[in-house]
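To whoever is on call:

I kicked off a structure prediction for a single chain this morning and the downstream step that reads the tokens threw a length-mismatch warning. I double-checked the sequence; it's 193 residues and nothing unusual in it as far as I can see. Pasting both halves so you can look.
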Amino acid sequence: MQAKLLSLAECKRVYEDYLVKDFPADEVKPFSSIRRMTQKGLYQSWGFYEENDLAAYAFLCDDCRQRFSLLDYYAVNASLRGRGYGQRALAVLRERYRAYKGVIIESENPDFAKNEEDRRTRVRRLAFYEKCGLTDSGVRGSAFGVEYRILYAPCSGPATNKEVKAALAEIYRMLVPGEAYKKFIRIRLQERG
């Protein structure tokens, strides 16, 4: 599998041909936001290719100062799902980010599922990420009313839960400016029972 850092034109093509179909409309940010952050050096978009065909893609927001990146969007081409491409693409991505402390991933918290089918989907996603070597950071987040478990993929070495929390807060501030951050974003360490 080959990883390619996408140009803005390639990123827009993946956004229009795949991303808007792979994610619910209320989770898709306008391409103008992605363009602006990319031009500022805060955002990267990757395509993962098998031969010359797009197998998966990942869009990430970087906190270069603390050396973390948040996986903003990640999906495998619908026709290739269930064949191991997701695991392989994440492994390649971690290698590309080896100079970073790690990649942070939000996964919807099963404790807040709408129904049993939704809960099973969320549990399956968490199991996928755990199979890929990610660990629960102990950080919990809420963005625009959606509750997340925050997972962490170490790249250059381990990080503490507090480091993950601080990096996530900084990245969210880049993604959600000003008053919207104060109103819609919550990040906390999971309380130990």
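Update from on-call: the warning came from a stale cache, not from the record. Cleared it. Sanity check on the structure: The chain is about 40% helix and 30% strand.
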